[in-house]
User: What shape does this take?
Amino acid sequence: MPTSETSAADSARHVAALLAWYRNMGADAAVGHEAIDWLARGEVRPGATFEMPDFGAAKPVAPPRARAPAPATPSAPPARPRVDVQMVPTSAPPSRQFPTSGPDEATLAAREAAKAANTIEELQARLASFDGCGLKATAKSLCFYRGAGTARIMVIGEAPGAEDDKVGKPFVGPAGQMLDKMLAAIGLGEAEVHITNIVYWRPPGNRTPTPQEVLICKPFLERQVELVKPEFLILLGGPSAQIILAEAEGIMKLRGKWHDVTIGAHAARAIATLHPTQLIRTPLAKRMAWRDMLAIDAALKGIGKK
Ligand code: URA
Assistant: This one.
């Protein structure tokens, strides 16, 4: 006979199982007090600004009068009850802009916007108003850069994580703490480096950014390199190394070697190393990263320059 204690334990187990399932599906961070029902966009045309419903005040709305119900066919599945949520402009949560254009148009718009920026602040403002990258719709914040506005060393990672998204800066979570230790090991602090990523918004569930998302953000990254004017680029992990070095090899092949690269109109020397997250997961890999950091230290001191 179930008691109220066993049923409370059962529901706690069910809630824990449901949360574990959400986490496995990629919903691993709570960014608002209310869940967003993206399906409630309903018939809003693609690209339109989606005003998030105010769930507290959501009321059922009458179905549009003009539209007659579709005739039932014998093979049609039973109609699901439709939940109509009033799409009202609300001042509480910000509106989310889904990209209105295709990837080619978005890349073109990114190029135009980036080219027109003459300072790092202008570039940040242009990025903030750029709606061509789909990642923006699901992220909480733009994570542009951390560290110095212009620097001799620019560090380029993959994509902001959950902590970064909350704070609005790249590499402030566990990976950032590991990165800070790697830089401190060769005497570098935030004042000497400019830290950014190949995409500026957190991909949902921390997935790897798609090639399309990377290409759309690339004009901004190129302009960022031109404005920061680094002598050295440190590329963290495979996706960053592959896009900057234009190589398809994995990070184990790419790491530890210097490359002369031209990004936009700026020439620099680039070296790839292991991503800090990889060092957290596989502490033995720190040996390789340490070798790379020593190579960077030597280059900074002008030792062994070609
Ligand atoms: N945080 C970032 O900003 N970039 C990464 O690649 C990982 C975590």
Residues 4-24 form the longest helix (21 residues).
